[in-house]
Specification:
two-stranded parallel ribbon, DNA-binding, globular, Arc Repressor Mutant, subunit A
Length: 119
DNA sequence: ATGATGACAAGTT
DNA sequence: TAACTTGCCATCA
């Protein structure tokens, strides 16, 4: 409507990222690039991380986003510093059966969940 | 308005 | 082999 409103895709993208993130099965993890690629923005993996940081301020209470299941392509908990506590991510992962050692996901390649493949 | 930064990734040197 | 450079798009100073 009105003239130039329509918030540019930022919100749309964020919503898509959150949607996919919620689909990540418990005990599984995925990478920013995988989500980005699934959304057609393989080169915007950074935006995925940006969207995740928003996940905390999002309607997470109604639709919690398992941001702890999203790590970088190396399986490192790169975003743990953005969590309420620096260990929250690791704790959450461990609680779901995902082994985390030294801030890194064990058997990342095995626990890796690709929306384009498993979905 | 410009510049720098960022929960990344892939390609190049 | 590791380190450097570029792409992407939004937010912050």
């Amino acid at each position: 409507m009105s003239t130039a409103t329509a918030r540019p895709g930022s919100q749309d993208f964020e919503r898509d990222v959150h949607s996919v993130a919620r689909l990540i099965p418990s005990g599984r993890v995925t990478s920013y690039g995988a989500i980005a690629k699934y959304l057609g923005a393989a080169k915007s993996s950074r935006m995925v991380g940006w969207a995740m940081s928003r996940a905390f301020s999002s309607c997470a209470e109604e639709s919690p986003v398992p941001a702890h299941r999203v790590v970088n392509r190396l399986g490192m908990l790169s975003g743990r510093m953005h969590f309420p506590t620096p260990t929250a991510m690791e704790e959450q992962l461990m609680a779901e059966g995902t082994e985390v050692l030294n801030g890194q996901v064990v058997d990342f390649d095995v626990r890796f969940w690709d929306p384009s493949t498993d979905l």
